[in-house]
Write a structure and sequence with these properties.
Layout (H helix, E strand, L loop, with lengths): L9 H53 L8 H8 L7 E6 L3 E5 L17 E7 L2 E10 L8 E8 L1 H37 L3 H8 L19 H48 L3 H31 L10 E4 H18 L3 E5 L5 E5 L1 H19 L4 E8 L3 E8 L30 H11 L3 E6 L6 E12 L14
Parallel strand pairs: 7-9
Antiparallel strand pairs: 1-2, 1-5, 3-4, 4-5, 6-8, 8-12, 9-10, 10-12, 11-12
Helix pairs in contact: 1-3, 5-6, 6-9, 7-8, 8-9
Bound molecules: adenosine-5'-diphosphate (ADP) and magnesium ion.
Magnesium ion binds next to helix 8.
Length: 476
């Protein structure tokens, strides 16, 4: 099994996060228990050491005069089932009186009659605790020092026993906590059940926002993301619905016209009226074809998902100049002077060539459509600090200023639009501009005549300076 096969698990994640600190806590609590137990063991054992020293002192007093401890007293002192206790009774003048080990003199010497004094010593490499006291006996000039000592083994032994007794309990507690976490996760995740149900019970078309009141706060970032996705889907669906309705409407009108003309021709089989009907049929079907093409272009331009835009550096100067050149024959046929003003290449923007060309097609179509006989159409391009400005203007009647804000609405045609059209061209231009982070503005053309449409796009790099003016403008 590779890592990719097992899905991530909250439970496993939580346990792995918890297990190391838990083990550390266990070890830490062990160390603390041991230290505490040792502290209390020391207190107890020290106390009995002091009592031992006092007992020797009492016995020594009762045996006073004899230089030695009686055998009974020795047995009493030395007898210890667990660990040996050592003692030493020493006169400062006469030396050692009785001992079972050569214990060192306490430092400093305790004053005679004071309560026993405790200290830690090292004897023959072993650490020990020693309780000592000093007494004056028959000879007031002499001091007898009584010491009692034992090794630390028993204290450590006791602390170890306490540790061994308690650490399984602590371990058990830790295991209980981990088990609780294991089950707690399942219980906690039940909080998500209402959300799951909410989503499961939705109808496919229901893209309204989720009811966040039921959602645990930790999950809200996720549900908000889902809501944002829903919103985008909703937008896309609405767009598609409107588009389908528009398309149907757009095609129904010419289809009805076609049918009417066919009926006319059938009803009146005279060649001239059939001919007339066929001319209408030709015009209607051309219009329907154009409308279908524009609907497709609009559909392409309004795809919602903008992340997958295939953008690249597009030389707008080259594109615009070449396109203006292509349309010269159409312009000539309509007796229109079509020209291009701007550099022949080197005005680069970031964008989609096909779409930018589509925008140009629609603008030049309109200009040629409305410029009128003997009019002029100028495609121009120039560069500012940060923008590239593409303008198409004509010398036709233009559009009254009050309608400028509505140009670019789908199917909007100012009242009295005389030429054939669907009102989609400028909508396509607007969508393409949006996708290129460009703006579309309307203005009057030269001498206050005609319409000037300006597309302002962010420039990519200044590769070449503007060179030449109207260098490719074959005038008709
Ligand atoms: N250059 C222009 N001169 C005059 N009117 C124009 C021009 N361009 C567009 N219009 C007006 O704007 C309307 C919408 O244009 P457009 O969206 O291209 O649709 P269509 O050309 O199919 O009618 C046109 O019907 C026309 O009335
Ligand atoms: Mg048009």
């Amino acid at each position: 099994m590779t890592r990719h096969d097992t899905p991530p698990s909250l439970r496993r994640r939580l346990l792995t996060i918890l297990i190391v600190p838990m083990v550390l806590a266990w070890l830490g609590s062990g160390a603390m228990i041991y230290a505490l137990a040792l502290y209390y063991a020391n207190m107890n054992y020290d106390r009995s050491l002091v009592e031992g020293a006092l007992m020797i002192e009492r016995m020594a007093r009762s045996e006073a005069g004899h230089e030695e401890l009686s055998p009974q007293a020795r047995i009493l002192i030395e007898y210890d089932s667990d660990s040996p206790t050592y003692y030493a009774v020493r006169s400062l003048h006469h030396g050692m009186l009785a001992s079972n080990l050569d214990l060192p003199l306490p430092a400093p010497l305790p004053p005679p009659g004071a309560s026993p004094q405790l200290e830690s010593i090292v004897l023959h490499g072993r650490k020990m605790r020693m309780a000592s006291l000093a007494v004056t006996q028959d000879d007031p000039a002499d001091t007898v020092v009584i010491s009692m000592a034992e090794s630390l083994d028993q204290r450590h032994e006791l602390a170890r026993e306490i540790l061994i007794g308690t650490s399984p309990v602590v371990l058990l507690l830790i295991i209980v906590v981990l088990v609780l976490v294991w089950f707690g996760v399942s219980r906690g995740l039940r909080l998500l059940d209402p959300l799951t149900q909410q989503i499961a019970q939705r109808r496919a078309r229901d893209l309204s926002a989720l009811d966040q009141s039921q959602v645990p706060v930790e999950i809200r970032p996720l549900t908000r993301t889902i809501d944002a996705l829903f919103a985008r889907l909703r937008e896309l669906l609405e767009l598609q619905e409107r588009f389908i309705a528009d398309a149907a409407h757009q095609l129904r009108t010419p289809l009805a016209g076609l049918r009417l003309q066919a009926e006319r021709a059938l009803a009146d089989p005279r060649p001239e009226s059939v001919r007339d009907a066929l001319a209408h049929v030709e015009r209607l079907s051309a219009g329907a074809g154009r409308a279908a093409g524009q609907l497709l272009a609009l559909a392409r331009a309004q795809t919602v998902d903008e992340q997958d835009d295939a953008t690249s550096a597009v030389d707008l100067a080259r594109l615009a100049r070449a396109y203006a050149g292509e349309r010269v024959p159409d312009a000539l046929a309509a007796r229109i002077d079509l020209g291009y003003e701007g550099p022949s290449e080197g005005l680069v923007v970031n964008g989609d060539t096909v779409m930018l060309r589509e925008a140009l097609v629609n603008l030049v179509d309109n200009a040629l459509n409305y410029a009128g006989r003997n009019g002029t159409v100028t495609v121009s391009l120039h560069r500012d600090e940060r923008t590239v400005e593409l303008a198409v203007e004509d010398s036709g009647p233009g559009v009254p200023e009050e309608f400028w804000p509505r140009l670019g609405e789908r199917f909007f045609r100012p009242p009295g639009s005389r030429r054939e059209g669907s009102g989609l061209g400028l909508a396509i231009v607007r969508r393409i501009a949006e996708r290129h982070r460009a703006t579309v503005t309307y203005d009057r053309g030269r001498d206050g005549r005609g319409l000037r449409v300006v597309l302002r796009l962010p420039a990519l790099v200044a590769e070449n300076q503007e060179r030449g003016n109207r260098d490719s403008g074959p005038r008709s």
